[in-house]
Batch of 4 targets.
Target 1
Amino acid sequence: MNPILEVKNLNYIYSAGTPFEHKALDNVSFAVSRGEFIGIIGHTGSGKSTLMQQLNGLLKPTSGEVLLDGTDIWSDKKLTRQARFRVGLVFQYPEYQLFEETVYKDIAFGPKNMGLSPEEIDRRVREAAGFVGITEEQLKVSPFDLSGGQKRRVAIAGVIAMEPEVLILDEPTAGLDPVGRAGILSNIEQYRRAKNATIMMVSHSMEDVARLTDRLLVMNGSKLAMDAPPAQVFDRAGELKDMGLSIPQVTEVFLGLQQLGVDVKNVYTIDQAVAELKRLKGGAAHA
Amino acid sequence: MLKDITLGQYFPGNSPIHRLDPRTKLIMLVVYIVALFLAKSWVSYAVMLVFLLTAIKISTIPPKSILRGMKPLVMILVFTGVLNLFFTRDGRTLVNIADFIIITEGGLTRAVFMMARILMLITGTFLLTYTTSPISLTDGLEALLNPLKKLHVPVHELSMMMCIALRFIPTLIEETDKIMSAQKARGADFENGSLMERARALIPILVPLFIGAFRRADELATAMECRCYQGGEGRTKMKLLRYRRNDMVTFGIGIVLTVLVIVLASFGL
């Protein structure tokens, strides 16, 4: 299958030609397919946020290409604008960008900018609200009367309503309580299933990315350091720690068990850990 | 981008001028401006210019950055020059085109004088803001305005407000940048369309920006109260302002400069 989004030899330099010159992306290349769930991890300042803004044409690469469905998004002005809609970008703390009088109007802002018909806008707003669990009643209230978690959902719905083929989220669960976190993560997963959309999620929670993603992109010092399934990435625990990253706690515990001589495999999620412990217990009972 | 705008334009350094008490610098600026308006002749302007150039030299501020700061003011300068040049009728006529455009000797001198005055006025002010951090500037202002407290002017509160405003300018610029990117990601278009459309396109930026500013103000107020802030009453300072020998020398120079200009003026120079 052809990749939906591909970047080739992407370089980006901030304030080029001044004393503040800083290379934020250094020869980054990767491709993602439809329906994939990708996690992006990396230390603060490793170039994650810059990379995200390249993918929907907010920042223009210093050199290199961003291909959406095989065409360079910078080859034509119209394509660049199209890329904004086809690649949805949810920034960190998106609730601070709400501005409309009602939740409905705020979610409709993106579709309206796309120039869709009123009926289509209405359909999309209601569908997007459904994905994030915003009720009919809540659509009529001011977004500023909602709780923090609900505001975050509204802001995400505002991007989902554009029905992007690739949805990029920068730490969508930052600052939320455990229930809020779980809710938003399952909303994102629902959207992916329903639309066969590609999800790219920046996260600092190794547990979340281990559980949800098919593939991890690890950014380090403006370079793409690793591009592999979570299991393979977390097997390189030493390298990750050198980059200021970590591995899921449960993986750490099981590595400790191995060092104590307990015969367990590497695990990355709680579910795997439970299965492994059951196997161990079952095995012990048989012996 | 927005980030490239320099605000407050403080130029960190450790020259004798940087080290002067902010009060001294503020007073000297006033003295300098008064002297500038007293100056009436080429001789006295030359004296002022020597003083100004020496001060810039001592401050180690690169003249280039002072020139760069002048750019937005070119229009005002040209405007002043042109007005004085064409509308002063004094002395011998130099150019006369169809009795419509008349340039006189008096007009020419006046134009040059006015432009020189404005240029030197602004450069002097720049020297103050370039060598004094916003914090110590507000500190100095507060100390100088202190006598007004007797008249129940809330001097401390005013300077605190100024200080906070200056502190939040970079924060707000950063915030604006973020909000703009986020709305662009939802297809907002700030570059195209009629004037009305563009004005309307600002709403999605301004509303979150204002809400954010109020939220920040609220948080800052709470944080200040948590540290038991209660205004200027009985408040002590970490950095005490104290006049040193250099400040005295500077005041001396200021007095000499003023006297010199007045004496020169009394001789008709």
Target 2
Amino acid sequence: MSKLTISLSPHVHGGDSIEKNMYGVLIALVPAFICSVVFFGWGAITVTAVSVAACLIFEYLIQKYLLRQKPTIWDGSAMITGVLLAFNLPVSIPLWIVVIGALVAIGVAKMSFGGLGNNIFNPALVGRVFLLISFPVQMTTWPTPQGFATTDAVTGATPLAILKAAMAESEADAASSATAMAEQAPRTMSEILSSQGISMSDMIYGNIGGSLGEVAAIALLLGFAYMLIRRIITWHIPVAIFATVIVFSGILNLADPEQFAGPLFHLFSGGLMLGAIFMATDYVTSPMSHKGMWIYGVGIGLLTVIIRVFGAYPEGMSFAILIMNGFTPLINRYCKPKRF
Amino acid sequence: MLKTFKIGGVHPPENKLSAGEAIVTLPLPEQVIIPLSQHIGAPAVPTVKKGDHVKAGQVIGQAAGFISANIHSSVSGTVVNIEAVTDASGYPRPSVIIQVEGDEWEESILQEAEKKQPSDYTKEEIIKAINAAGIVGMGGATFPTQVKLSPPPGNKAEVLIVNGVECEPYLTADHRLMLEHGEELMTGIQLIKRALGVERAVIGIENNKPDAITHLKQLAAGIPGVEVCPLKVKYPQGGEKQLIKAVTGKSVPSGGLPIAVGAVVQNVGTVYAVYEAVMKHKPLVERVVTVTGKSVKKPGNYLCRIGTPIARLIEAAGGMPEDTGKVISGGPMMGKAVTSTDIAVTKGTSGVLLMPESESQRLPYRNCIRCGKCVDVCPMGLEPYHLMLLAGENMLEALEEEHVMDCIECGSCMYTCPAHRPLLDLIRLGKNRTGQMIRARKAAKN
């Protein structure tokens, strides 16, 4: 008999680990990745591969040479950051921009705060927003899905950008001439979209312009279901976001269907699904209690619709999540779980 | 829909290896070590000295105050020494060491139960017998039973809840007791009901013991005011507050006692001891202990005398497996890892668990990833990750504000943590120090 080990209870562990959760998220991202490859071809693979590789390399270099820690790049978190960053980029993005995004995501947003568990803001989103502000042209050139077709990529606008442009147009019309406005045939938002050849089913299956990972709502929902079954995340944050977006955009739509798109459009367009399911639920930057999760989710939903409808950018998901990330410590402080 | 408690909880693998093994009486050991403090409260005062001859059932330690319990010799023989001996908690405790000679019992102890009905005893007689027998809560908390049966003025007990949950993995002692001594338990329940003056008793049993549920339901059918409540399996359902919530739907307030919601909880082992104390005038000198573990040759349930070194139990179960890395007194979730197999069985020892070396070591801990799983599983609705940080910084006022004193130390948080963080280690430390601070503050006020 060897020596007896003395430790305090509990003496058993459930077997959960950081890796199981992180790789679980990566598995949940596979359907969306397959869709992005189907829609955008080889470009989807290269952008994702470069992003993941860059994130892993930067994390390794920073841990080994700057922080002088044992590198933990295989815990899966840097890989998730890489995949999510790539999923937020258009397929036509120059690869050197992807590398810069990865450096900002890992170096600035994650490691400078102390690495996994200590960052305030979602690293992938910080990287994405940095790129959006620094390289606005490259970041808003959206090739329409071509699959592996060899023809030159055709760029088009995302559904949200189409709407934004239409809204600006009608506002300009209203400003220029009141009489012209009266003569103009009323156009609802769904009419504007269908005039551009975009249907709701295209948006659900992902046959629309957009960044790599955000286009196929159904694939993202599949990943959501997987994470719920594996108990990697709870349903609270995504459902709070969906519900808020539906209610808020529904009210706007009822008030003025000509000016504001309906709830289903908001739900299935842009990065809402990707953001709500995979980015807002990031363990580190989201609240701990269920009540806190509701407040956080409702905040993201409201801010997203406000930015989309009234802001300068067509898409508001990234900003909404980052703003609410900033509120997370405050939410944690004031939202306590239901006590016994 | 089976009843259970509402907040948190985990589902560790049950591993009830010895559930099918009937209770076996362990042969008398050569020597017993009987600690004078086997209960919460003041240690008993020894009433024997070195060289004295004692009989089984004789008082060797007198309860010192209201929250204390009598200690009896579990064997007949000679007192070899009274000295401090390390117990399961790792601290030296004053203990009476007795060399076993024969098996001679106190004359007042009956071998057969009195031919009387529970209704033949008065409330005072029952409580007196329990007090004399040195009975304490045998589920592990070891709170003196007569204190629980004497509610403070202004409180009225309404229901007796009998704890047959045995939610700790591996342990089966209570399960076997319910199967093999159902009749005695029914008598014990009626005695406690009389002592408390309650009309209703509910036996809470988790659904993983269907045989015990069926058996006790059959027995309870003929007795008015005794019912069996099957419960959904979930750890820590055997926790007093969790069990009351599951059975009655009522929540014991923070810092409050079960009596605040009219409930009194007694473990089935305690109920059996009450039966023996009243009907046989027999003090608490033996108990059923589960000896188990994945590599143990013959996992089983043994009736053994208090003070028996656990090495004797391990021998009976086929000896210490080669791969043993940890010996635990109690279950894997709340039990204590012991320093040697010389420590003695006490009134609160429900099991001896031998863990293989491969399961004995903790994995190194990592950064908190703030997943919130500890918050989800905490059955008291606390925030273990936060309590751990506060305890690490020794922020006692903040810990008190965050209700660290509500922690029942069930270990669900640490069991769940994907980063293997030592949550409960630090929370326990913080709770201990916060308790000291609160007591010092109260003392300063008085």
Target 3
Amino acid sequence: MTAAPPAIARPDAPAPAPAPGRRDTRARRRRRRRENLPLYIAISPFYLLFAVFGLFPILFSIVLSFTDWDGMGEISFVGLAQYQFLVTDDRFWNAVGNTFIIWILSTVPMLFLAMAIAFLLHQNIRFTPLYRVAFFLPNVTSMVAMAIVFGSVFSDTFGLVNSAMTALGLDAVPWLSSPWGIKITIAAMVIWRFTGYNAIIYLAGLQSIPTDLYDAARVDGASLLQVFFRITIPLMRPIILFTVITSTIGGLSLFTEPQVLLGDGGGAGEAGMTIVLYQYNQAFTQFDFGYGSAIAWALFLIAAVFAIINWRLVSGRGDGPARRPRARKDSRR
Amino acid sequence: MLGAAGLMPLAAAGCGSPETISEDPSELVMWYWNRSASPELLDQASSAIPGTDKHVRADVIGTNFDTKLRTSLAGKAYIPDITYINSNNALYFTNEDLFLDLDELGADAVKSDFYEWKWELGITPKGRFCFFPLDIGPTGFFYRQDVFEDAGLPSSPEDVSAAITTWEDWIALGAELKDSAGSFLVNDAQNIFEGYLNSSPERYFDTDDNALYLEDGSAVRRAWDVTITAIEAGLTAKIPRDRGTDQNAAWSSGRTAGNIGAAWWTQILAESAPDTEGSWRIASQPVRAGNNGGSFAALPHTCKDPEAALAFLTWINSPSNQALAYEDVQLFPSTPDSFTDLSYSGTFFGDQDPLDFFSTAAETVPTSFISAWETMIGGSFTFEIANVETTGKDPDQAWADALSQAERVLTKRGVEV
Amino acid sequence: MTAAPPLPRTTASGRKSTRRAISPHYGARSLVAKIVVHLCVLIGVVLSIFPFYWLVVMSTSTTAEIFGYPPKLTFGDSFVENVRNVVQSVDMLQALTNTVIVSGACALLVMFFDSLAAFAFAKFDFPGKNVLFVLLIATMLVPGSLSLVPSFILMSQIGWVGTLQALIVPGAANAFGIFLLRQMAAGSIPDELVESARIDGAGFFTTYWRIAVPLLRGGLAFLGIFTFIAAWNDYVWPLIVLVNPERQTLQTALQNLNSLYLTDYGMVMAGALISVVPLIGVFIIGSRHFIANIAAGAIKG
């Protein structure tokens, strides 16, 4: 606990950034090494656990994607055959398309709603603790129950939604048998399950915003909306980045909702088949582990590309502005 | 080719992990799922398997049974001594070496107790008997008698059975039902396709891996044609089976007035549509009864004491014990003699006795062969059937797509057709 | 060990005064605004609660009532019987104990290891930091479902099959939480504080304990709650790795209630409800920290 104080990241540097170049003497280097030791110890548990428990399974599944294996018997190498099959597999590309459509349909409204809810709950309105619990409940409602509830609510002929729509003089929508109906229903389920979750992340982030900024805004006579857009959003940027990245990963690996709603088959015309549902289908109902692995690694590539794009889009000019006020002024001339 | 362990230095390096689960040499661990064995009998076996000095520890494995079994087999560790396997036992044919040939242990001594077609389903393409028969699922045509009566159709089980001896007659009856009552014959087209194939002696492949479905006039093609005719006549409600709530509502409301179902569907129906008590009857399905579902038991190659394990299987599946299991957890017996001890006392099917119906139906189920490859390509056909049904896809195009998809999958799995 | 310096004088009681201060400013509109806000929130609340309410209804119903048409949305009277069936079929006490141990241990370890790493990543520079962080993010993208077989082999080789540590240790630190807390730390831990701790000669771990932990309370609470929930609800891996009936988690035990042909859904729903109630408790306790004033607590000392 008495190790020498380590170097601190420069507050205004676009994080994460290495310390600016200095002329290192040998003694200085040695001292720096000693200073850095606690930092490496601090980050080491994750990497150690990953090396022990994560690396072997990953290598194994990479190898599997070049083989044909049914999950218990002989493994035979087939070279690139699984990937060749994948490139020309209409069902896979259909699943890719579905995944992206559902991802856009769900993520965008979900994150906006979550931010709005968090902002509202952060105001001093009454019953906030009760509301928090309410928005939390979708996270713990069991899957079996969800299957029955959503199946009943969105049923084509007998569902509550269609009953309400016909009562209002609208046409009933074949929610669970038309390509768009299926996608919208799945997106609705994702929004239902994860809006509260993201709102809770935002809420946890909002509470950490230094309140001197709100004081300043008050003095300037800013409106609630101005406070939201000028202060809350910029300061929440690192957390928004986090939710965008995790929603991207979560959205691209969407599985539970379509499976709960439509079973392993992805619904009529496979309109609700997502990449991971297809992967599950191949690996755990067809027991084609080789192809399942190839699908998984194809998804890894797609997700990596999108994570990078999202990171660039959201973090913009680095997450500098989201730092402390001083840093903010500095970086904005 | 190399064994799974070849890729896994860790598995190859050590023999540190035990192959079987229990360290007690007199304890055989069995995996099964809830209500797939009589608790009373398991309780007896937990003290001793009759005639042996071994006992059974029965562990319930919930969902993802196959995943757990495969993982332990692949990892060559913590493998049960006895395992139940669902009706998808053909999925294990390609790895039949992992299971013992029960005939070598003398299982054929009890063969004559069982329905022959069920016994045959447990034999691998190489002729090894690895999968011991548990329960069965003979099928029939369930229908809403009240709806049929209101529509002026034949309504007693005898009359309906007589009116639908061929699939064409059955479709004609469905058309009348649609016209006069506005009700559908079945909820989804897959029910027809599978109902047909499950009652056919010929399926996708023969035991020599010949692709029968590619031949002109194959059973698969005939099942396809019958199904397409029914779809085009508008006899299916277009509610796929994965939407259970919708299907139940359709049956409860009478919007759909029939289903080709197995013996075990009687309980599901009674539980899920209790308001329709007394309205349902069961008629013989066109041509002959089929089989849908029914499980098996297998002994992994690591089984501690194969003789005792087989003694357990023959004991728990003896005609009298299967009768007991039927009364206990409604498993439909695979031994005809069980029915002499059984009687049905319920009113869900009015004065009809489903036990009597299905035990008679079980006599007519044809012997057939389900190939491991069938489990890989069957989905291509039912998928295209669903496309024709719900998205109005052109049937010829759908058939062509099903064939090419099946061929792609088989080629990828190294099967030449 | 030197005490960390107090926060710059802005936040000690800043939050409350801010709120009080903002509202008069919008006096004229505030009533309408308040009603609109409450209305919006209420709609969201109803939509969120409804499926859970239905779950409760189903746990009081028979299977027949659950699948009845039209669906029944009022409470049935089979709750006691359903719960009794669950308790008779499942050793709840055993399963609950195991699950609490696993979930609690996972949550505590993850909170500790992840916040330690996150603080280092967010506020310090060290050689290799960028590469290591990118690597960390990349592991979040790695597909997990296919690792069952190799993970099982690993566990059987080190003799952990059938043990609870097989469920705890591999997930004791995760990329998700490190990433989350790093993002939170970036915004909520003022560099001045870390800097002055350094000037006072406080080492990394002292700074972490005195400054980072109190300031990350909200994030830590979130991470703890959701790690707990994830471990609580995990099913497939416990199913694979636990081989003794006396070592079951709640989820593997409850999944055993499903049967091949005929499942008693009233019982399944009652089981689902029982397994969820503790999670709601954990959330209520943990979520208090979401509104904890950032200046409160340890820093004052």
Target 4
Amino acid sequence: MAEAILSVRNLRKSYGALTVTDGVSLDLCAGEIHALIGPNGAGKTTLIHQIAGTVKQDGGTIAFLGRDIGGLGVAERARLGLGRSFQISSLAPEFSALRNVMLAVQSQQGSSFHAFRPVMRDPSLTEPALNMLERVGLAGRAHVTAAELSHGERRRLEIAIALALCPRAFLFDEPMAGMGPEGSKSLTGFLNDLRQEAPILLVEHDMDAVFALADRVSVLVYGRVIASGSVSEIRNNAEVRRAYFGEHI
Amino acid sequence: MQTTLLIEQILNGVQFGVMLFLMAAGLTLIFGVMGVINLAHGSLYMLGAFACAAVATATGSFWLGLMASLAAAAAAGAIVELLVIRRLYDRDHLDQVLATFALILIFSEGTRWLFGSFPLYLNIPPVLSGAVDLPAGARYQLYRLAIILVGIAVAIGLYLLISKTRLGMRIRAGQSDREMIAALGVDIRTLYTVVFALGAALAGLAGAMVGALQSVQVGMGEPVLILAFVVIVIGGIGSIKGALVGAALVGLVDTLGRFLLPQFFALFLGPSQGTTVGAALASMLIYIVMALILAVRPRGLFAAST
Amino acid sequence: MKRMRAETPINFLLAGLLLLVPLAALALEEPFYITLATRMAILALAAVGLNLALGLGGLVSFGHAAFFGIGGYTAGILSTHASNAQPLMTWPIEIGGSDNMLVIWPVAVVLSGLVALVTGAISLRTSGVYFIMITLAFAQMIYYFATSWPAYGGEDGLSLGLRNAFPGINTALPLNFFLICYALLIAALYLFARIRDSRFGTALQAARQNQVRLAAVGISPFPIRLAAFVLSAMMTGLAGSLFADLNRFVSPSMLSWQMSGELIVLVILGGTGRLFGPVAGAMLFVLFEFILGGFTERWQLFLGLILLGVVLFARGGLLGLLAGKVRHG
């Protein structure tokens, strides 16, 4: 197996008496899509939050590119190369789609303390941003404000922003949610290619997508990883079937 | 001599703290339950003082004046909630600041219109005039002591109200989860009006009581309002306990700072220079304390979970 | 790609109108109107500063009077020392006063910026209501310091004997002084527009709209906000020094919470976050003050009612009514 780019060890998080992350360990290796599945309330999103830094873990370590990032802030982790999409779209609503992506491009290029040059007339920002929009099929909507985009378009914009960061690993939290069958299908194809750029930790409820894409699946139930393995191993795992698929299949 | 003076100053600090608590408790309750920052709380304080002074002058009874101040402030609070504040629950804090800033202008100029620009005076009721003997040879104004007792009674009353009654249960529910109390079938609009009127009445009470110690005039509310902000920032917004601790801290630090710092600096810099430096520093002291506390605990000492 | 904003012609109109007032005043031999226009320009400049923090950054500072007053006292104190020829300090180096605006302005700007750096660093650790209350409290701290420090007038304030000088221009002539203020206002507006459209401005506006998003692309909101707060204070401080020169008087009222409130009102009346919002707001405000003040000494009552109406029913301010919603590129 390739060396892990992202490596979570024994991560713990509780809110009062409620343990949402209970000793989770998992790896994300170069070139793979590692899917994280589990019933609602299993703690998937909280886990993503802890890896991205928006929620601070109570214990355990998070190593990224061989470096302990458990104590770093959100922005620092993003600068190191963690590209993230949110479960509920999180955009700058007043900015156009283009300017949303340009924000990521400018971050990627370095300092944000240039206070004089207009960004909209700066091709070093607009061109890469347009490029990213094109890749997710939003080039035609570049000048529409994020607030006016449709739900599916916002999901794709989230991914374009993550792409613009040229990250070393992607954290995608339910990118297919509410996309409809057509959208899910095209996004599945897109993610399938994307893994060559950087590995993806994918939280997803759409089982067709997960089974089509994942190199590895980890099943999270009540904050614990109850099983981890290839798609066929997970499909045939008795405990998983009982705990999770029992309700679905 | 120095000890008796110090005891007196400490009591003054406590009395000041009590008054700040009455203001801060209302503010923090309103913010905790409704998420509204109310700059016009100082106007309700002023209104209480004016109502008390006007009624006491007309009837000759301080106690009727006190009743009037509670009624006037509560009624004004309820009306303001119904007409203005109610429209601000879903707005951002900027809109709330502006609308309640506008209310200050309206209240201040309206009061000036009604009562003129000259201050009113309110006498201490005869029963409470005079001083009492304290241990160590100190004497203290009975009226100020009464204010302290009223403040303690209000603190206990608020504690019982919030922890033991049905209304208190709804207030607590409202602080933690607004949707939940709607789901419980509580008429949330009425609850908000009641909480707002309650906070207003506390401010009115504070204004009325302080009115007998200083002149009653337009603009008396805002300096107290800003100190009450300092109190709840120190204590943690939304926390009644924080308001109590913060008020005691601010009251004592401010009063004792003004008393001790000039004397302290006079030791090094000579009486005239030292008094100047000490007084200037004392005027900034509580803000420095606030900055220090925030540097360690950005959400105050007893931050309610948000 | 650059589309003309709907408000651009309105902006030119406002700028022209403000310039026209003193010229008309000269023609009509009503020099008082020049003072009125100067007041508009200076308050607008102070509000452009606040608009940077409040409008672009969403930082509701209820303490910008602190910087306005610091600028004012800088002008007052330096010019006092220049006129009585006593040094401001003798240790560790001797520093004298100055009545030259070209000295006073940078000092006012730097001092405002330094105070903003310290108070901002503490206030910006918090957000929302905390931020509002803490900025208010810090301004109040400086207010009380000014009232209790007798060397420069304490509560009574400080008179400037003569208006400070600008090399080669007779500032005692009202029109000249207006033109200086107007030029600074236009420069500040230009700077505001450049900042708004720049990378820094993009990050600042993103911090207001969605700070989680900003952090997720790798930009920490705190330094961006702090820089904006400092820049904003600097502009307001510059305006304060001009205000002292306009009135030839500085007093703690420049530092008061009412002043902070008024500065916010200027921004909102005109239209938050818009380039010319503060200009429209300042012109409206001074006009209200003048017209309503002519009818009744209770004009603030009506100001309160108008303000309440704007907040409850006309949230975009004047420019919002005239030019529709803000558009971003």
